[in-house]
Amino acid sequence: MRRQLSKIYFSATTQIHSLRQLVHTSARCSSAVTLPLHVVHDAYSGPSTTTASQRSFKGMSSRDIIQKEKLSTLMDVLSRETRSYARVWSCYVDFMNYAECDDLPLEVHQAVLRHCVPGAYTLRAWTARRMRAGQAPRIPHHFEARLKTVIRNIRATGADATLDDYHVILHQFAAVGHYTGAMQVLAELTHVCKLEPESKTFGLCLKAIAHRLSLPIYKVQRPDMLDDASKLCRKLLKEMSARDMPLTSFNLDLVVRILKEVLDQEGFYHLMKLGYGIDLDYPDHPPLQGSSMLSPFSTAALNTTLDMLGRLGNVAKLVQTFEVLTQPLPPQASQHYSQEFDDEDDFGITNPASTEPHQTPHARPNITSYNILLKHISRAGHATFARHYLYQAVRLDRSVDRLLRSQLYRDPHGTLAPHFSLNRGTIIPVFGEANRDKNMELMRWVGWVARQTIRRKKNDIAWYSELRDSLPPPPSPSEPPSSRSPSSPPPDVSTALDVDLDTPSTPLEFSPPEKIFDINLHLSILQKNLDELVTWYENHYEVALSRMTQRVKERLGRRVWAGKNIYLLNKNARVIVPRSAWTRMVNFKQGKTSFSGEHSGRIMRNGWVAGYKGLRAPRPQPLQFFDPSSMS
């Protein structure tokens, strides 16, 4: 009897499970409608545990109960300090499925707009990383649909989005370089919502254009994209001029970078006159037509100017601009300028009353300035200029390090961070110029500079490491060093894309603070530069020098075997050298016999590279040497 009952129970259970499988064809998901736990009656709990919850939901329908629970969940997620943007969007969509747009306050819609997408800096790094890897996203902004949905829901409530709400969207578009969407948002807030844009609004649109031009662009799309960027930049400038809106220093920096990318020489020169008071045709003189409100000329603006002039290919103007804008003449020198061009008397002080003292805008160069300068000079083939400025950079690197050590000796915790440190990018352009021109003298000198730099980097790392171990702990400040709140950090104008557009439009009242020296960061930078230099020297320089030396030996060896004269430095004349003397002179080796008895045409030099002190590395690929017996 028990066996029959168990069989009947088992068959009934199997039928129930099969019926559930037929009815519930989908798997459980998070979007399924579930009642809260305090609403469902628990058989193991007494009646007192559900009395309070039943009273709170008394007289409410099941839809109202679910809506209230979804709202409380959404508010709880938004109130957390560390929240997930995916969780915020999931709770928001979950609530809107059971409610109307009017059921949610405007402030909650605005909070969701700001927290339903990743941060601007996170999204910017993610997009740039994907584009560098060749995985460009199919759409410019991955979460653009979410932003549109929230704005649509705000309008459905009968209210209008504020200018700050549109600034949030523009921040997102600027982070990924979505300039088309930024221009559409600008048109919507001005024509549809009738909002008055600010300097920050135009700055975010310019930031989107500048950031897109800095990202990788397909060669087929580049001409059209540069044309669009130029047109949109001019459109924004015209609209700002029509609204009598001053051009802030950050917006000016962004416009200059856009004009540099599109190679608009006329617009670039005109903007340098109006914005910075610099006439690139005559850098020492004040411009004839300038503006009364000039922006400060920063190091970032100097680097942009040098890059623009280098791309235009005018090396003379590039060198002139670098010298004038980094080492300007004193203001009293303007009294000696002649403003009356007379053939008989075109010098001296012609009218002292009309020659007011003029201080040329200038900026302190950093390592990026020298890297840009050397890159364009070397590409133009000016070996003399390249050697001069590389030598100048080496001397400046040592002077900056000596000054830093003396300041650390006097004030170890209040020293400002250095702005200059020689790296691989400073030496490679000159190395490329020597390699292209087969300039052996310059090539050997570049190797000497690299070895000296590596030795000094090692000594610097040892010295600063010892200093870090002996430094006393920093004293705890009794009061905050700055009156600024931590929520509003000062802007950093080191790049075109990391700017704070909330700063006031008067640049003279605000200056970015200097960075305090961090010995751990300094050591990491030194170690990184050392590793890059050693890798480049072993894998590229030594191979290129050996190859170039071998090519010169082979070329001169062919002239010797043909009975032609060659130039010898020790004799300072072109002479005919015997074959035996030339073999001893260039250290040619006699060929070895192979296992088959045949004479090999070229000899391989194996072994280790005799490097500088502390570095000995095997050659990646042995080089072949010229065998004079093959030409007899």
Q: What's the quick description here?
A:
By secondary structure, the protein is mostly helical.
Outline the structure in words:
The protein is mainly α and 632 residues long. It is built from 21 helices and 4 strands. A hairpin with a 4-residue loop joins strand 1 and strand 2. Helix 12 packs parallel to helix 14.
Span of the ends, CA to CA: 113 Å
- How much helix, percentage-wise, in residues? 40-55%
Mean pLDDT: 77
DSSP helix count? 21
The description of the largest β-sheet is: 2 strands, antiparallel
Weakly predicted, low-confidence segments: 1-54, 341-353, 478-499, 503-510, 592-632
CA-atom Rg in angstroms = 36 Å
> For the largest beta sheet, what order do the strands appear in spatially?
1-2
Structural class: mainly alpha
Provide the β-strand percentage band: under 5%
Number of strands: 4
Shape: elongated
What is the string of helix and strand elements?
HHHHHHHHHHHHHHHHHHHHEEHEE
